[in-house]
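Task card 7
Instruction: Convert sequence to structure tokens.
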Amino acid sequence: MIDGAAKIVRVLSPVYLLVLSTVPLFAQKQSVLEYLPDMASLDGWEVMGEPQTAEGEDLFLLINGGAEIYNEYGFSRAVFHSYVHGPASVNLEIYEMKDAASAYGAYSFKTGRDGESIDIGTEARFEEYYLNFWKGNLVVTLVGFDTEPETREAILTLANLVDARITGESARPELVDILPPTTIGGAPVHATYVEGNLALLNRYRFGSGNVFQAERGVVGDYGEKLVVLFHYENEEQTFERVAAASEQMEAGGLFTETEADEMGFSGRDRDGRFLLMRPVGRYLVVCVDADRPDAFTFLEEIAGRLAMRAEGQRP
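Output:
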């Protein structure tokens, strides 16, 4: 007879049909595996195969076509595992990043304006059949195979168990909080924190190459409006980047009706929207809107929030 406190886990065929050489689990640092749910808490669940792990560049062997963005944000280690509960199958992916800002950045890149806000981790979003959340220096993704209620419940159960195993508090990068938090209609802004050009290009194309040479920035999606904010070490560096970016954007062929001077750049993009770019202290601000006066007004609002921040006030 089996002790009621014991659990027998039946191992099924792996859902990830991967051909890769992974480091044996005993050689991995234990911490990345400790984020996996304790099977003692999953009565009636089954696991599919062994956890798949990767460090650094090995992530390219584990996922197809997505490793670049994690590496841009500062990927450290990952563990993948798959679970079954009745008719519901769920893939769990846990990515350990270099710090909390990088984890938020990867989370903000993977999510959008749609979906349901869920009280899991620091922030979580449920969209159709998958859930993303971040907490500390981890970003977690859970993917089901359908939109049935049983699958949703299975995803939420696993997500809460992983959340409980992550200790420590985390906050969004301060740069994100400079943005106005809502649209004119009251809808929350979706802010994408960027730490490289790949993430930026997926939100708006300014030209080829790393036009702004910024280590960090944020893209605020307000629906019809878009604001991009970059931070530099000092005002001199900001003016240098404004001049260089203006020259590249004027010559790049992506904008018409361009005007450029030492105080910034303006032009019309291929979607017919107006783009305005200005330096504001150590920040470079870009606003995009279908209406030029509205773009200017929005830019002034961002500049005002930056001025309040410089004076020690909360925008």
